[in-house]
């Protein structure tokens, strides 16, 4: 019975705030409901914007494979004299030598530079 009453109270609060949305605007991040306390449903409103406190990243390079990281990963996999041969939209190709033969390792152009192929 208590769970039913709590759910009904929450539905009523959500319904009333939905109707009053034209008068006041509150973002979803600024409203917090707490359940389980002895007083019942608690409501707090925060005006602080959490997006302002986060560090800003360059939008174009976010989540891309840096060529220097691809070269380092190729050297860790045994490629000597490794150099970047091509940087495309979806892949980064690093060429070098291994056991005297020319080889290339293809990395995906996403964060972390995962290996997607070898020649």
Largest sheet: 4 strands, antiparallel
Q: How many H/I helical runs?
A: 2
Gross geometry: rod-shaped
Share in helix: 10-25%
Strand order of the largest sheet: 3-4-5-6
Give the CA-CA distance, first to last residue: 67 Å
Structural class: alpha+beta
Question: What number is the mean pLDDT?
Answer: 77
The total strand number stands at 6
Instruction: Evaluate the radius of gyration.
Output: 27 Å
- Unreliable spans: none
SSE arrangement, N to C? HEEHEEEE
Summed up, what is this model?
With 119 residues, the protein is of the alpha+beta class. The protein is 24% helix and 34% strand.
Outline the structure in words.
With 119 residues, the chain is of the alpha+beta class. The chain is built from two helices and six strands, in the order αββαββββ. The chain has a four-stranded antiparallel β-sheet with strand order 3-4-5-6, covered by helices on one side. The protein has a two-stranded antiparallel ribbon with strand order 1-2. A hairpin with a 3-residue loop joins β3 and β4. The longest helix is centred in the first third of the chain and has 18 residues, at 2-19. The mean pLDDT is 77.
Keywords:
alpha+beta; four-stranded antiparallel sheet; 24% helix; rod-shaped; 2 helices; 119 residues; two-stranded antiparallel ribbon
Topology overview:
Elements: H1 2-19, E1 31-37, E2 40-45, H2 67-76, E3 80-87, E4 91-98, E5 101-108, E6 115-118
